[in-house]
Protein 1
Amino acid sequence: MNESATLVSSWLGSVAPHGTAVAAGAIGPAVAFDDSEHAAVAHAIGKRRDEFLTGRSLARRALDELGCPAVAIPVGDRRMPVWPRGYVGSISHSGGLCVAHVGRSGNLASIGIDIELVGALEPDLVRHVCSPEEWAALERNRISDIDPGTLYFSGKEAVYKAYFPVTRAFLDYTDVWLQIDWAQGCFEAQINFGKPSISDGWKVAGRFSRIGDHIVTAVWIERRLT
């Protein structure tokens, strides 16, 4: 495991809910678990195939830590991974690095993880991701070593990855408003009216960090403790 992967695993392990597991590593050649995984990338270019299969391999490693037998992780709606019964998770990759984060379902409804290279977004894309009001709020209290455009893009990606498995509803970037707490390295997500809401019995928690040349964001939808 390279240094960045070790740091990502360590950070996620320190902020994630109890009962979750993380596996991170460099993207490289990997073997499909079965025909369903092979078919998912049979016509993909080599880079895309390596990203997909590395992610699945890391996901199985993380699931193994939770006692889940090795299984295929097929592709479902909107290209989301289909997790084994009783488990939830998320996979992300960027800049040669891949991370898989998994947990047991029950008190944990879903996980969203996203990793992005710092400064990789084109300015035109940032303008589609952030509203002027969001950008102004970010600029007031930003941390110098974290690119706010990348943070907003990554945070909203992580929110969507956690949101879709619960609601089966699509979100555009403008459907999500993030309120960033720079000092604590966390954020809250608000979903626009008109979109399915998360039940009052659940809470959405988001964390972020810059690790080397990457920004990592993670979102968990957890059952509220009463």
Protein 2
Amino acid sequence: MTDTIVVTGGAGYIGSHVCKALAQAGFRPVVYDNLSGGHRHMVRWGPLAMGDIRDPASLSNCFNRYKPAAVIHLAGLIAAGESVKKPSKYYDNNVRGTLTLFDTMLHHGIDRIVFSSSAAVYGDPDSTPIPEHHPIRPVNPYGHTKAMCEQLLFDYTVYGLRSISLRYFNAAGADPDGELGESHEPETHLIPLVLQAAAGLRSHIDIFGDQYPTPDGTCIRDYIHVSDLAAAHVASLSIMDDRPSARAFNLGNGMGYSVLDVVRAAERVTERRIPTRRCPARPGDPPVLVADSAHATNALKWHQIHPDIDTQIAHAWRWLKADNVRVNTSHRLKKPSLLATD
């Protein structure tokens, strides 16, 4: 019998790619989403159960109806900058909502979960590449919420919960088949912002800081293709321990690209000039964030198929052009105030 997997946040960017990967691997994905950040048209590989992770009654209805073997939890707020201004919003959704999810799962006898965590749990790292044993010391509320949820998973092993936390670095690209892609409102990620500038939807890209101790003075980040990220979630389901446990893995490329590297790669792919504007550095932006993903490669028997930044950008560019009918034309009217790093 085909195992059913409930994917919270499955109508979003990463979640929709995870659902496609699950279906291709023979699972039945059920999307549980309130559509606050996701899109109904991204739900294509299984049913949509409308609901909020803070609502135990809606969760119970979903679990009673579909009887999942496991949960993949991606229904989190992700904008670190916003979390500084609105910490209550982030603790409410990311911590209270996740705690409600865990408790409701256990009430229904569901004891396996893959959790969407983040490299933000590391804060400003001592060195890179960053291994999983690096100290956990987040520097913003968003990172704190992810670290708290990982601690909850560790503590909940006493109730029999088995979990894997996947610490994402920078998800990038789009489905290689052109069926899915990134569509946030507002957009905060570097690659889609740069491509929107290439498409004429934004006048320029702001680059925050050009005096960092890096080869070109701009921040360096680690970009992993979203389809490779999705594959790691499927692989995680197959290595859940027989006994209660809480394990964590980095998911990154292992290679760093600067902000200017990304702009130049986008210019190569799109064959268009992308205007940039230099701005003062933002407080708290580490110069370099690159993952050591060897542990995930070995334990999950997982490897990247699309590590090249030009390929990631090419897939995202094809999606943006195909999805242009859904691009909000109000972007043309807004004064850009764009993030230059993820």
Protein 3
Amino acid sequence: MEKIDKKYFCHRCGNKYQKAFFKDQLGVYCQRCLIFGKSSTYHKIYRKNRECHFIGEYGLKKVINLSDIQKIASKKCVEAFNNGKNLLIYAVCGAGKTEIVYEVILEALNKGKTVCFATPRKDVVLELVPRFKRDFYQVEIVSLYGESNEKGKVGNLYVSTTHQLINFYQYFDLVILDEVDAFPYYNNKMLEGFVYKAKKLEAPIIFLTATPSKQLKYMMNHKLIDYYIIPARFHKYPIPVPYVSLTHNTKKKIMMGKCPKKIYRWLYKRERQTFIFVPSIELGQKLEEILGKLFYCKFVYAEMPNRKTLINQFREKKIQFLITTTILERGVTVSNVDVCIINTDDEIFDERAIVQISGRAGRDVRYPVGDVYLFADYYTRSIKGAIKTIKQMNKLTKKRQLLR
């Protein structure tokens, strides 16, 4: 940390907001990144240069078949990298965003560059690393998250949570930032500072999102960032439009040990496995207790030590219903599932969350459809906005297909 032109600046997180600096007996420290230890005027952080050996023969182990619209998006990513410009890929849930960036990753690696695929959530890292290792040939992949045993390892493709980028300084030649609107990255100036500090000054960022924030929409509308919209899923089927079922005193009934009849009847008719999203751990635990007497179901949330095991059991069709908090609203793909949200009128289910959760259904080309039900005591702006957004994307998809 140092003082520049009478103003403090934190080199670790990029903070220059003066009210986020505090004085103690020894000097001044940054409050924004205090969770990682003190960055202060009386501490020094030493950095060590590390370079990976590049062989220049990177490729894919199999052919990735992209749709026409995916191919256009892929080429735009390559152009953005070669021109050193930022790019936003606005693609609906299930559009195949990950496969779209394969070409630009290889373009960078074969030029001897270092690439970072960053995401706000550990679950996405754990989901992507096996896929990258399966698909990329001879690429040294480093996986970074809180409990990772690969910290300090040198590679040329890093798959990392945004928190772990605190450990890098002007290191990456290309950053691909997935789920840019997701918690905890969204509206977090500290994590945003980590991303911009970790990349080289001239290095571009490719932003990936299915639900752009108001800020990103503003940038798109005012042409402050290059962007490309993918309104269709890779299999060209529409995104399931949620159906709203109004219930009464939903939370109160569940906490009293009763499952509302509408919810029970809907679950009883399910032939597919089902994600059941709830707004809180307390409600999820109570619902598991109630439904566990009737169905085989499990509840997962962020702090659960065996969460990964239960998710894998759900994938293997060993669990009928998986009750979950919003921790699984993104980055987790399971074939042939229905989805419901209980207590959708809770403020935690904003428009972006509802769109993301709806996108869990119908993601597999073999099972491109699925039911999405929103159980709520009343309509909210978020519910109406999410349904409107999904319908608009489906309409745009249909229009583009008609124009061909």
